[in-house]
């Protein structure tokens, strides 16, 4: 897909640039030193990095997937539909603490959504070296706006032609051309020049690997030139595994500023390092520091103590801050797949939890279904690696199939997998399950890697324990919600009814929205919809009492105004601190009229045959629970056969940047467009539109009534 991603263009513009060219133009045209293009996943919940310029590979891998609810600039720009500008590190810490913790370097960043006609495609992220002006210039904003619009057009046309742009498993690192042809004689002269200098010189690419090094630099570092070129210095030389080196490398790359530090080589000689960066890589200057060499203590070796690597530290911090937002077990599974698998370069993952003496697979990625079916539900007494790790609480690592089969007789060959890390999930000092990471090739697990994976598993276990508690409470709340809403609505001649309820997408609170339809006799019925203030068990219980009170007064023959009056009195006696909006409708199908009374609720939409939907004009009385002497006026509306009434709560029309009036008008237009469809399909269409809002902070109740 990548080739098409960079070459798809419109028929009217054969010379239109591709996505790669537009990303390069955005970086160069704004003076940024790094840029990344993220595309929205088909599920609409994740941003995946498609390509990047100037971003080091370890950092690109760490940030290759961003959840749309993440507290970082990119997702925020998509959610809010606007350019997000963060001028400095202080502002980053104030508004996006997760990013500030894992990228503690001075730089400025802008994130701009890529969208067409209310359709989100992704986001463009740019980084500038500090210091930058407090605000983006007009030119910078114009370049960002133009390139984002052109990217959006390319992505839309690609989708329309049946070739949507899909990011690969890893982001593509684009190189920045110099525009200068190398002359062999000049290159040799330059090499001779740097080799004659008493200081050492080397160049690192954005992957942290040595692309060039002088012999002097190799001698100062105490390594072989042939072994250092093509490798990351801190991976080849044990004494450079101190996180100071790698942290300075990351700081130089992200801030585009000179960073410096000193370190002692194995001979005890102090060396001063200077790192200079640009979007193509980093140049390192190594200078001996005058003075006597430091003597080693007897028996001391430079690699006796191996400090944890900088990227490991940041990965742990990144995962820890990300997991704090995990609410459900599925959230944890998704985060492990998005963060741990990418960072650890694993190809497959499964999470198993102990339940009633068995191991249950609660989530997996890239495992064949038959493999999952085999392991799901196996007793703890089975001789598998997961069961053994679960019981002992000790991680196990298998570099090949032979190692796994030799130690566990119940091991099952898994297609496309050749190495495994089976890690205990320990929470509250007890194992609760395991996480299995699988690799497609034989793998040697170093001591550092084993320690890192075990630490990551510990963070995952804590998040899973919290998520399991949430899931239990959430299921209880859902059960209570279901018991308080009508399981089915009564059927009546000449009346078609459709109802929907949709909980909020965020948090574990139970909703207070309710609806009901009460059959009064063969030709009359009462419909009610309302919203209790609050989202907790108290609000839900009160909602049940309100429904019961309305039902009792309605069946006793009270008018709409009287029903609300008596219910208001009851509500004040029960809970003076909670308020409820409510709309009550009395339908007389024989007389073709509807009598309505409102207690601060949104007016219904009325759709008469041959006419567009209109907002019913009726007085909105006080909310129930405010004033014991409040009166509720009744309004009568003509309801000829074929008419439809739509009763709803505010969650159906809420959207970022849209006020309540615009929301009602937009709902009316959608209702008019689909009025000819079956009522159940109309209800689902209205609900589907609400599902497009990624984070709904309120639940939704919808009740449609059609006079046949």
Strand content: 25-35%
Whole-number mean pLDDT: 83
Cα-atom radius of gyration: 32 Å
Helix content: 25-40%
Question: How far is the N terminus from the C terminus?
Answer: 52 Å
Query: Strand tally, please?
Result: 28
Poorly predicted tracts of residues:
1-15, 296-308
Number of separate helices: 22
Task: Note down, in words, how this protein is organized.
The structure is a single chain. The chain is an alpha+beta fold and 708 residues long. It is 37% helix and 25% strand. The protein is built from 22 helices and 28 strands. Strands 1, 2, 3, 4, 5, 6 and 7 form a seven-stranded mixed β-sheet that branches. It has a six-stranded antiparallel β-sheet with strand order 15-14-13-18-17-16. α14 (329-344) packs antiparallel against α18 (447-484) and α18 (447-484) runs parallel beside α19. It starts with a helix and ends with a strand. InterPro entries: Bact_Sigma-Reg, GAF, GAF-like_dom_sf, PAS, PAS-like_dom_sf, PAS_4, PPM-type-like_dom_sf, PPM-type_phosphatase-like_dom.
Question: What is this structure, in a nutshell?
Answer:
This protein is of the alpha+beta class and 708 residues long.
Question: What's the SSE blueprint?
Answer:
Blueprint: H1 2-7, H2 19-30, E1 34-40, E2 46-53, H3 57-62, E3 65-67, H4 73-80, E4 84-86, H5 89-95, H6 97-102, E5 107-116, E6 119-129, H7 138-160, E7 172-174, H8 184-196, E8 200-204, E9 210-213, H9 215-221, H10 225-228, H11 233-236, H12 243-255, E10 259-264, E11 270-278, E12 281-288, H13 310-323, H14 329-344, E13 348-355, E14 358-365, H15 369-375, E15 378-379, H16 385-392, E16 396-398, H17 401-407, E17 419-427, E18 430-439, H18 447-484, E19 495-502, E20 513-519, E21 524-532, H19 537-555, H20 560-574, E22 580-588, E23 593-599, E24 605-607, E25 614-615, E26 635-638, E27 644-648, H21 660-673, H22 679-691, E28 700-707
Parallel strand pairs: 2-7
Antiparallel strand pairs: 1-2, 1-6, 2-3, 4-5, 5-6, 8-9, 8-12, 10-11, 11-12, 13-14, 13-18, 14-15, 16-17, 17-18, 19-28, 20-21, 21-22, 22-23, 23-26, 24-25, 24-27, 27-28
Helix pairs in contact: 2-7, 13-14, 13-18, 14-18, 18-19, 19-20
């Amino acid at each position: 897909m990548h080739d098409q991603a960079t070459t798809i263009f419109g028929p009217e513009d054969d010379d239109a640039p591709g996505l790669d060219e537009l990303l390069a133009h955005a970086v160069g045209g704004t003076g940024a030193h790094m840029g990344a293009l993220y595309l929205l996943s088909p599920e609409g919940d994740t941003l995946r990095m498609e390509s990047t310029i100037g971003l080091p590979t370890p950092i690109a891998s760490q940030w290759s997937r961003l959840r749309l609810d993440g507290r970082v600039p990119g997702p925020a720009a998509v959610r809010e539909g606007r350019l997000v500008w963060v001028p400095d590190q202080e502002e980053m810490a104030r508004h996006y603490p997760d990013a500030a913790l894992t990228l503690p370097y001075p730089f400025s960043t802008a994130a701009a959504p890529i969208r067409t006609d209310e359709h989100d495609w992704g986001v463009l992220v740019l980084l500038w070296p500090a210091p930058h002006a407090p605000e983006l210039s007009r030119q910078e904003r114009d370049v960002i706006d133009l390139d984002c619009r052109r990217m959006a057009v390319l992505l839309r046309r690609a989708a329309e032609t049946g070739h949507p742009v899909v990011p690969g498993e890893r982001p593509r690192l684009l190189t920045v051309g110099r525009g200068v042809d190398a002359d062999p004689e000049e290159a040799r002269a330059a090499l001779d020049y740097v080799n004659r200098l008493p200081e050492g010189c080397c160049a690192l690419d954005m992957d942290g690997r040595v692309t060039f090094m002088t012999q002097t630099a190799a001698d100062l570092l105490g390594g072989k030139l042939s072994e250092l070129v093509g490798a990351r210095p801190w991976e080849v030389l044990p004494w450079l595994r101190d996180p100071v080196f790698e942290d300075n490398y990351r700081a130089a790359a992200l801030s585009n500023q000179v960073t410096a530090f000193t370190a002692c080589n194995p001979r005890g000689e102090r060396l001063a390092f200077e790192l200079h960066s640009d979007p193509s890589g980093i140049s390192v200057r190594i200078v001996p520091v005058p003075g006597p060499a430091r003597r080693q203590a007897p028996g001391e070796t430079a690699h006796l103590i191996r400090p944890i690597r900088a990227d490991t530290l940041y990965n742990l911090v990144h995962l820890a801050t990300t997991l704090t937002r995990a609410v459900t077990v599925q959230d944890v599974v998704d985060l492990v797949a998005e963060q741990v698998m990418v960072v650890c370069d694993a190809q497959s993952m499964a999470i198993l939890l102990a339940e009633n003496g068995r191991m249950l697979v609660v989530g997996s990625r890239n495992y064949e279904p038959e493999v999952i079916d085999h392991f799901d539900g196996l007793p703890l007494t089975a001789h598998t690696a997961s069961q053994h790790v679960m019981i002992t609480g000790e991680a196990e690592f298998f570099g090949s199939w032979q190692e796994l089969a030799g130690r566990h007789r119940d091991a099952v060959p898994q297609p496309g997998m050749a190495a495994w890390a089976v890690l205990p999930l320990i929470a509250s000092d007890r194992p609760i399950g395991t996480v299995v990471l699988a690799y497609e090739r034989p793998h040697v697990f170093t001591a550092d890697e084993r320690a890192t994976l075990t630490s990551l598993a510990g963070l995952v276990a804590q998040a899973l324990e919290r998520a399991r508690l949430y899931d239990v409470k959430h299921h209880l709340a859902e059960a209570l919600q279901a018991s308080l809403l009508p399981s089915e609505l009564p059927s009546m001649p000449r009346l078609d009814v459709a109802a929907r309820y949709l909980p909020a997408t965020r948090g574990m609170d139970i909703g207070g929205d309710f609806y009901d339809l009460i059959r009064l006799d063969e030709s009359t019925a009462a419909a009610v919809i309302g919203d209790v203030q609050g989202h907790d068990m108290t609000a839900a219980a009160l909602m049940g009492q309100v429904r019961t009170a309305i039902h009792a007064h309605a069946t006793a023959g009270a008018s709409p105004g009287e029903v609300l009056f008596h219910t208001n009195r009851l509500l004040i006696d029960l809970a003076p601190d909670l308020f409820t909006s409510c709309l009550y409708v009395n339908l007389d199908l024989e007389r073709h009229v509807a009598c309505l009374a409102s207690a601060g609720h949104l007016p219904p939409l009325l759709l008469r045959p041959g006419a567009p939907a209109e907002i019913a004009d009726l007085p909105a009385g006080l909310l129930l629970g405010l004033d014991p002497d409040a009166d509720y006026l009744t309004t009568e509306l003509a309801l000829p056969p074929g008419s439809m009434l739509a009763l709803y709560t505010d969650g159906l029309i809420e959207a970022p940047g849209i006020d309540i009036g615009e929301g009602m008008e937009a709902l009316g237009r959608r209702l008019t467009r689909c009025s000819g469809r079956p009522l159940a399909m109309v209800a689902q269409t209205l609900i589907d539109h609400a599902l497009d809002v990624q984070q709904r902070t309120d639940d939704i109740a919808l009740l449609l009534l059609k006079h046949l």
